[in-house]
């Protein structure tokens, strides 16, 4: 099957590309810079594509499309229409759209509108709404804060979050891409447990052998830290919005979607930390 992976050079898309290519599918990895050096698995090739100016030609002969709206890209209505038109004109048989947990309850979010645009179209599609991914703990800025300051400082209070491993999201996405019958419309994807940041710090401490503490900070402190780091006002507003939702418990619910699709429990925080302990050294 010919698959087109938007975001295929990013974290989640690269994991999905590996899954699809290892199962013998022909994978087109969409990128704005196809000429740059990148390591792709056998069976995958890079194709020039920009969500802001989608080329129907790039989609020629494609059966299934994986689509994300990358951080910092909030498509305008006209750009969404151009994307849907390109997908429809090339006869794509299913689109797997990744948004985020809670997007269906956030009408002001660009991802909410993108979901709605797909819902109003005639295109067969699946929606995956993952929670925060465990891999964020090994990415900037949390990774450096843990490795260098030995702390996690967030405006998350004592809220719990059902973190999910991106590898589970990629596996579910691979099923949604290639299964002939995909019975699910939209799935909220979470890990199998809901943990607070004290528990996360304690788990890292246990595996790292260095005490990591969680410091719950105020919204003003979070804003000041983001400003000090040079974050754009838009980014600051988005981060504080997510922190507020986190404190309200919006990312705490646990769903059985991973078990339902993969027939096994989601990967755990414990296993993730054990496998990734070197990222904090
Ligand atoms: N991280 C989380 O905790 C979390 C939680 C819930 C949902 N999500 C969602 O999951 C999705 C995937 O996350 P991720 O961390 O894998 O994303 P990521 O690594 O930040 O994605 C970057 C990718 O987006 C592509 N891209 C950027 N601008 C583009 C454009 N204008 N046109 C086409 N492609 C463009 C990049 O391709 P090139 O640079 O090669 O062009 C790259 O492949 C995100 O959209 C996010 O909304 C993430």
Describe the structure.
The chain contains 10 helices and 11 strands. The model has no long low-confidence stretch (mean pLDDT 96). It has 2 domains: 128 residues, NAD(P)-binding Rossmann-like Domain (Rossmann fold), CATH 3.40.50.720; 99 residues, UDP-galactose 4-epimerase, domain 1 (Alpha-Beta Complex). It has a 7-stranded parallel sheet with strand order 3-2-1-4-5-6-9, with helices on both faces. A two-stranded parallel sheet has the order 7-11. NADP nicotinamide-adenine-dinucleotide phosphate binds next to helix 1 and strand 2.
Residue stretches low in confidence (pLDDT < 50, at least 5 long) are none
**N-to-C span:** 41 Å
Main sheet properties: 7 strands, parallel
CATH third-tier fold name of the largest domain:
Rossmann fold
* Distinct compounds present: NADP nicotinamide-adenine-dinucleotide phosphate
Order of helices and strands: EHEEEHEHEHEEHEEHEHHHH
In round numbers, the mean pLDDT is: 96
Q: Rg to the nearest angstrom?
A: 19 Å
CATH superfamily of the largest domain: NAD(P)-binding Rossmann-like Domain
Helix content: 25-40%
Shape: globular
Strand content: 15-25%
Q: List the total number of helices.
A: 10
Can you tell me the number of structural domains?
Answer: 2
Kindly provide the name of the CATH class of the largest domain: Alpha Beta
Strand order of the largest sheet: 3-2-1-4-5-6-9
């Amino acid at each position: 099957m010919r698959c087109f992976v938007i975001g295929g050079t990013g974290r989640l898309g690269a994991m999905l590309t590996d899954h699809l290519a290892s199962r013998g599918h022909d994978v087109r990895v969409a990128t704005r810079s196809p000429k740059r050096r990148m390591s792709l698995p056998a069976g995958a090739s890079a194709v020039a594509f920009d969500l802001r100016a989608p080329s129907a030609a790039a989609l020629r002969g494609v059966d299934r499309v994986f689509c994300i709206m990358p951080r910092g890209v909030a498509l305008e209505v006209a750009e969404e229409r151009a994307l849907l038109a390109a997908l429809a004109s090339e006869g794509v048989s299913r689109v797997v759209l990744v948004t985020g947990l809670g997007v269906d309850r956030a009408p002001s979010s660009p991802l909410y509108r993108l979901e709605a645009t797909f819902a109003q179209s005639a295109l067969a599609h699946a929606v995956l709404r993952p929670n925060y991914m465990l891999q964020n703990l090994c990415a900037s800025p949390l990774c450096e804060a843990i490795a260098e300051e030995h702390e996690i400082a967030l405006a998350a209070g004592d809220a719990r979050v059902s973190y999910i491993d991106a590898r589970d999201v990629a596996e579910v996405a691979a099923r949604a891409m290639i299964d002939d019958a995909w019975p699910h419309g939209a799935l909220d994807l979470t890990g199998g447990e809901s943990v607070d940041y004290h528990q996360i710090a304690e788990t890292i401490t246990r595996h790292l052998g260095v005490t990591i503490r969680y410091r719950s900070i105020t919204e003003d402190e979070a804003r000041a830290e983001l400003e000090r780091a040079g974050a754009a006002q838009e980014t600051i507003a988005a981060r504080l919005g997510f922190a507020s939702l986190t404190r309200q418990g919006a990312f705490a619910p646990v769903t059985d979607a991973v078990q339902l699709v993969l027939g096994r429990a989601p990967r755990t925080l414990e296993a993730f930390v054990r496998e990734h302990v070197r990222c904090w050294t």
